[in-house]
Amino acid sequence: MAEAAVLSTGSSAPPTRRRRNWVPYALLLPGLLWLVVFFVLPMVTLASQSLQEGNVDDGYTFTGNVGIYVDALKQYWPQFVRSFLYAGTATVLALLLGYPLAYFIAQKAGRYKNLVLVLVIAPFFTSFLIRTLAWRTILSDDWFVTTWAQKLHITDLLQAVGLTANDSLLSSKFAVIMGLTYNFLPFMILPLYTSLERLDPRLIEAAGDLYASPWQTFRKVTWPLSLPGVVAGTLLTFIPAAGDFINARLLGNTQTTMIGSVIDSQFLRVLDYPLAAALSFILLIVIVTMVSVYVRRAGTEELL
Amino acid sequence: MAWIKRHLISFAAIAVLVYMLVPNVVVAAFSFNDPKGKYNYNFNEFSAAAWTNPCGAQGICESLGLSLQIGVIASLTATVLGTMIAFALGRYRFRGRSATNLLIFMPMATPEVVMGSSLLTLFLMLGVPSGRTAILIAHIMFCVSFVVVAVKARVATLDPKLEEAAADLGANPTQTFLRVTLPLAAPGIAAGALLAFSLSFDDYIITNFNASPSSITFPMYVWGASARGVPVQVYVIGTVMFVLTLVVVMTGQLISSRRNRQVA
């Protein structure tokens, strides 16, 4: 070690050990500038657009019309509520489905671990839209409803709980929530897997040795240690699900319209920019508020 | 009974895996269908027509080409920008660190529909025309954060002593970076780039806000087709993408496991 130090000080241009202060800033600058100009600045123009009045042909002028927010909420609160309900249900379902699989990959898969992990990620690299269209094909098959449900006389019950609409699985609430759960499941599984992989299996053995039942072991050891993954996974599932409209449009009906769909059509078809911008801004504010409260409650500040 | 109870988690995991893979199986099966009518809903008759003529549906291969082009440019740019940020976060102490973390986290915590629509308002105000450039700007923006997360995870596991050793052996900072740090961080960078490509290639919502009629990406083509009737070629491309991903990821894992064995 001493020799190396002598050698390095003896060379003509000794490497400076002191970290140069400007280096991190130079590394950050291009990327952060990109995010500031194309992510932060648009939020400002979005807010500004919502407070303007006018039309596409004659242009817009800033009038500070805050009333647009009241109108937007009055008109579209059912879609907002529905989006958060669907996204919340899908998140809970994804957690229930994703946890066993993540646990299996992290602790039980052994030499098949990498293979299963690839199978979890692979669908994620295939087009989201094509897979959702495949669900449309699967759900359009009315075999279940026409044979089983009618034999068991539960068609009305299925309709009432939203599992079917007009005696078809497709175009029901169930189809939309199932689609959301399916599409965002990898976002739940990967963070869960990361935290469960770090879990030392000896802790589980120790709990068993100390006469904890499997359920107690889960409640007191596994679950608390996997909490960072649960927080990250639920956020990564809930946020995109709340703004999604692809599942609602491809698998749902007019009664299952979500807020993303309204924003999309107000912007691109109706061309009512102020209203669309107001709706989009409300969605942003609600999500940011929910996320910050949730993260603080869950106590995992360092998510990255 | 005890056996079933002991393997309950494994059964649940396999059931979930089946749920995740069923659509891919359906896509593969229906790529060999000769559909009756314009909707590819019921399996009518076996046919490999779409496989022998994948560009047979009008506009499909043009849109695929555009998506590949945008995906490559956007993921490469985002990988460079994101890797630089990840190194700054993983290797240096500096002021404004938590603000940087927040700025990286925010795009991942914002619904796509909000990002797409807000960019549209910016472009409207600045008079930037919608189309390929606007799509590229948007894609680079939402990919950067994911690259940062992937690369940072890898940089965090690197032993700083290796870099110190290189410096002790007389390597200058550039040599140290190119011959020690970068090769060690490469798996993280590759994972980030792959993730960025898939996010860009697959994006519909943000793209739709910034596209023009002359810039139809593959997801936009599929979306349009879902209303008119989906050509079988879409299922062919879906199947090829799935198989290709499996091959690429498995080869990558084989290489890395072989390398690990050599090191060991």
Automatic annotation (TrEMBL), chain A:
Coiled-coil residue spans: none
Keywords tagged on the record: Cell membrane, Membrane, Transmembrane, Transmembrane helix, Transport
Domain of life per record: Bacteria
One Pfam match: BPD_transp_1
Family matches, as InterPro entries: MetI-like, MetI-like_sf
Domain ABC transmembrane type-1: 80-294
Cellular location(s): Cell membrane
CDD domains reported in the protein's UniProt record: TM_PBP2 (cd06261)
Transmembrane segments annotated in the record for this chain: 22-41, 84-106, 115-134, 174-193, 221-242, 275-295
Gene3D superfamilies: MetI-like
Chief subcellular location: membrane
Protein's membrane topology: Multi-pass membrane protein
Similarity remark: Belongs to the binding-protein-dependent transport system permease family. CysTW subfamily.
Name of the featured protein: ABC transporter permease
Provenance organism: Terrabacter tumescens
Automatic annotation (TrEMBL), chain B:
Cross-referenced SUPFAM superfamilies: MetI-like
Subcellular location as annotated: Cell membrane
Domain ABC transmembrane type-1, residue spans: 64-252
Domain of life: Bacteria
CDD domains in the cross-refs: TM_PBP2
Keywords of this entry: Cell membrane, Membrane, Transmembrane, Transmembrane helix, Transport
Main location as per UniProt: membrane
Transmembrane segment boundaries: 68-90, 102-128, 134-155, 176-199, 232-255
UniProt-listed Pfam families: BPD_transp_1
Membrane-related topology note: Multi-pass membrane protein
Family: Belongs to the binding-protein-dependent transport system permease family. CysTW subfamily.
Protein known as: ABC transporter permease
